[in-house]
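Z., the sequence and structure:
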Amino acid sequence: MQSGEQGVLKAIWSALRTPVAPEHRGDLAFGWLILGLFFLQVFTGILLSLYYQPSPPMVAESVQYIMRDVDWGWLVRGVHHWTSHAMIVVCALHLLRAVITGSYRGAGTPNWYAGTLVMAVVLVATYTGDLLTWDQSSYWRLTGALARIESFGSVGAFFADVARGGSEVNATTLSRTYSAHSLLLPWMIWVLLVANLWFLGRRLGMRRGGTR
């Protein structure tokens, strides 16, 4: 095992076994709630991926099949949809609490940055998930969003072309949106959550070392 992985595991173990001061218990509760919602998102997303077809001719049919013919499919899709929005609310409340309590300053700055990035990636993941119905509304929303990205000069045009997979919104765009939603963004959220826990473990470890 590499030294970097050992450091992460050591920090996680330290965070789990170190007594938490009262001023940090709210942050820890929010963190566990966000982590639980994330795992629920992953679980329901895996179930949905068994039936969802990221191809324009098949999207509407596969969504209808999930909703009408798959046992409890409507419930799984509903849970997946609403837990994504719940993650946004919880992340926003967590960041608001950090601002009110001032825990974003000093030793809590790395956690603040990691939490802000988690919020941003969750917003993108929720947005891309809403686009996967691939109806007229999602098509024009995506077209408008890519046009706004293109307005940021050559860098924006590059990222818009990568997202589209060409000059027009088409089947390739849907495939890339699905790949980003189901593969790239969940891994980004997971890495940021682990980083947040690692930073917290270091803070608790330093606090414990300072009180000896």
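The chain has a mean pLDDT of 86. The chain is about 85% helix and 0% strand.

Let me know what you think.
H.
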